[in-house]
Amino acid sequence: MKSVIIIPDRCIGCKQCEIACSVEHSKSKNIYSSVFETPKSAPRIFVLPGDHSCFSFPNKCRHCDPAPCLMICPTGAIYKDSSIILVDPTRCIGCRMCAMVCPFYVIRYRESPDIVERYVATKCDGCIDRIKKGNIPACVETCKTGAILFDDLNKILKEKGLNFAKKVFLVQKEGKKIDVLQEKNCYNMLQELKEKLYRTMVVEDE
Amino acid sequence: MNEKSIHKDAEHFISISEKEGIETVWNRLKSQEPHCGYCELGLSCRNCAMGPCRIDPFGDGPQKGVCGASRDTIVARNLLLTISAGAAAHSDHGRDILETFYETSNEKTSGYMIKDVEKLKKLAIEFGINVNDRNDGDIARELGAKLMEEFGTKQKRLTLLDRSPKKRQEIWERLNIVPRGIDRENVESLHRIHMGVDNDYLNLLLHSLRTSLSDGWGGSMIATELSDILFGRPEPLVSSVNIGVLKENEVNIALHGHNPILSDVIVQAAEDPELIKIAKEKGAKGINLVGICCTGNELLMRKGVPMVGNHLMQELVIMSGVLDAMIVDYQCIMPSVVDVAKCFHTKIISTFDKAKFEGAEHISFDKSRGIEIGKKIVRLAVENFENRIPGKVDIPDKPVEMMAGFSVESILELLGGSLDPLVDAIKIGKIRGVAADVGCNNPKIKHDYGHTYITKCLIENDILVLVTGCAAVANGKIGYMNMDAVKYAGKGLKEVCESLKIPPVLHVGSCVDNSRLLVLVSAIANNLGVDISDLPVVGTAPEWYSQKAVSIATYFVASGVDVVLGIPPAIFGSQKVVDVLTNGLKDLVKATFSVEPSPDKAARLIQKKIEDKRMLLGLSYREIG
Question: Over A127-149, what HEC string results?
Fold first, then answer.
């Protein structure tokens, strides 16, 4: 069973997933016309800064099982379809119960194309329409760094584990210190500089 | 403590803005974070409609743009565009002054005259113009026409490059980066950036150097020279700085932007007896002019007009409630000043047709009616005095004394007409070397922290610090630019400062006046018979934000001065570009860039670079730990 998996150290904060998500959930599904629609479409994935701006994290619904939001919804507006948790906007009364119990703070209240002048629970629908047509979710498709993947979870974890194992032996073989947690590349280089810059705001100030 | 500024006045207004929900640059930075990593790395390209494209920095995703451009091509192209925008800004500023100068020589302007005839003649001679038995207007007219050619296509090389050491000129010739025409290099940059033109990252980087040189030795240098001729050559003077220069009982006018052709006329207009009379009728005691950013620095250098703040102060000064008008020309003026002004009575008046601000009152400036328009603008400010909101008056600090006016000519005069005393002080090691702290503010680093921290470390270690632009205001405001600051200097530097009666940190001018630094280092190098790159001289821009700053940094490096940047530029997407700029340039132009966000480490790096240069010159050497 494939699902969306986030690899946080690959996220570079470009927010293209937010845009792709907004377009996918607009009426026209077209970036040029979607910006003129009312109500305006909005993302259901949120790229948030970490403890400071050097890190970013794409936060979205995890489609939990059991899902606290589904269990607490008093009107039965939240339901499950092939392991994806969905909201029926016509049944939502905007009581906020789902948002209160969601451990990830990924539910927002917005007008939807079907329900206007009323704010209903809106969240990631796993791009269920796309999946049913054999496509991958919009956020996954747009992410070029591999921070948002769509695959079998255990398969990805196995691959990550294999990579890790290789690095462990590299450390032994080459006898030099290798950061086993992070790949070294130009983005890390920039992150280090940004972290240094950030530290000037707090630490050097004795 | 996570403070946003080192200054009392800034912190005071930032906390009020947070309480009252007045949006500032710091709020907007926060809401932009996290920033797009592609853009931060320089790996996004939106030059053509086959794209936009981006290169995956991790290596699994796309590695080429649709056209086939590699990460190196894209990063280098983006950097060239940044430098060109900066060079164009300085050079177009220079052209505006040149046009005013030329029109003045034809007696077609109001409010301008040839103030420094000596400098006019000196410059004319450099351009091969006969100055004997001719009137000033004639000389100026011929010089003006010649200078216009510097912007065009006729020339094979910019004339003012002759001021640099011969060895330096040979380097430029060898690399084929001699700037030809000021506009030409910028236009050629835009051409090279077009798809399918220059795809070689090294070739692009070399043209970046050439374009920046057309700024430093062209547009900026012409701006400085002609401003001195029209408005007077700066002489050492004492003025003051910070929010305290605003006066509760006077009409306060802030001049913000860069070009003195407007602000100089405003100074004249504000002296108009009729306007002062109206101000008094409205209950004010007079008209008080203050400066922000470089147009302020231009006025401070020549007329001693006090500075109310630098780049990151521009929104905050409005919150004093006593600013009756902010008159803006161009560059570095945040569009948000209009929004902040809506919460107060301050009028924002834009003046240049090429720089309009939605929500501001626009009065089109025309140099042929300079004084008339200047008076019209000042009148608006005077009439706005009565609209002050009594409860909102807030001036939370007292001004600090600050010296300014250190043009190359005035430094020479202080030294008794020759550079020898300065060169000797460097030789015997009383002064270890010279550092230029220049450039902007950036909300990514605590306001003025980088500038002042680095300056303090340097003067403590006997390094004379020259400052321009926002860096000057930062150092002035913390008290490093008055005679009292001599106490912060190391023993050798202190001795020199005391004997010359100068502070350890000298205000050299606005950001186009970084060209004065080129003139100064050239003169020192020529005095010693060496190249600029042999001198114990380093530039730093710890808080830079603008494209102009990148152009300045690049022409420093291309001229042989190592530069230490505090904010990482958008080049880290290409290891090759990073390698060339931080290392490879050493073989090409004998100077490199460094990026060091920690002011403490940056200060030590600058010191080390200076001591290393001393060693190579065979001068006394200090180990830097």
Answer: CHHHHHCCCCCHHHHHCCCCCEE
pLDDT at A200: 76
Query: Of A5-9, B97-101, B392-396, B448-452, which range is least confident?
Result: A5-9
Cross-chain residue pair B598–A196, CB shorter than 8 Å: yes
Instruction: Among B231, B253, B287, identify where a domain stops.
Output: B231
| H-run or E-run covering A47 | strand A46-49
B422 in the same domain as B357: no
Integer Cα distance of B37 and A190 in angstroms: 9
Residue of A nearest to B574 (CA): A186
State the smallest CA–CA distance between residue B326 and chain A in angstroms.
30
Domain count of the fold of chain B = 4
Query: Tokens 């009575």 sit at which residue?
Result: B345
- Find the CB nearest A14 among B38, B566, B599: B38
**pLDDT-based confidence at A203, cuts 50/70/90?**
low
Tell which of B369, B392, B415 closes a domain.
B392
Q: With an 8 Å Cβ cutoff, are A14 and B575 in contact?
A: no
At residue A120, the 3 state secondary structure works out as strand
Tokens 């480490």 -> residue: B601
> Tell me: the pLDDT tens digits for A118-152?
899 999 999 999 999 999 999 999 999 999 999 99
Q: Test B39 with A187 for CB contact under 8 angstroms.
A: no
Does B190 have pLDDT greater than 50?
yes
Residues of A in contact with B53 (CB under 8 A): none
- CA dihedral for A128, A134, A138, A139, sign (positive or negative): positive
Q: What is the CATH number of the domain that holds B332?
A: 3.40.50.2030
Please work out, in degrees rounded to the nearest 5, the angle formed at the alpha carbon of residue B526 by the alpha carbons of B522 and B531.
70
Is residue B143 within 8 A of residue B129, CB to CB? The reply is yes
In A18-57, the residues whose Cβ lies within 8 Å of chain B are 47-50, 53, 55-56
- Among the ranges given (A28-32, B234-238, B543-547, B562-566), the one the predictor scored with the smallest mean pLDDT: A28-32
| Residue B555: pLDDT band with limits 50, 70, 90 | very high
**Closest among B152, B123, B155 to B140, alpha carbons compared:** B123
Asked, for residue B622, whether it belongs to a domain, the answer is no
Helix (H) or strand (E) holding B139: helix B136-151
Is residue B270 domain-shared with residue B388, that is, in the same domain?
A: yes
pLDDT at A179 over 90: no
Q: Does A12 touch chain B (CB under 8 A)?
A: yes
Task: Give the mean pLDDT of A166-175.
Answer: 69
Look up the domain containing B578 and give its range: 402-616
Contact status of A144 with chain B (Cβ, < 8 Å): yes
SS3 per residue for B166-178: HHHHHHHHHCCCC
**Residue from the list B3, B36, B61 with its beta carbon closest to the beta carbon of A15:** B36
Q: What is the pLDDT of residues B489-545, one digit of tens each?
A: 999 999 999 999 999 999 999 999 999 999 999 999 999 999 999 999 999 999 999
User: Does the structure show a pLDDT above 70 at A171?
Assistant: no
Nearest to B446 among A48, A187, A201 (CB): A201
β-strand B44-45 against B53-54: which pairing, if any? antiparallel
Residue ranges and CATH numbers for the domains of chain A are 64-123 (3.30.70.20), 155-202 (no CATH)
Rounded-to-integer distance, Cα B429 and Cα B618, Å:
11
Q: What percent of chain B has pLDDT over 70?
A: 100
The CA distance from B277 to B249, in Å, is 14
Whether A194 and B568 lie within 8 Å, measured CB to CB: yes
Q: How far is A57 from chain B (nearest CA, A)?
A: 9
pLDDT at A202 > cutoff 70 = no
What does pLDDT average to over chain B?
Answer: 96
Closest CA to B564 of B584, B537, B546, B541: B541
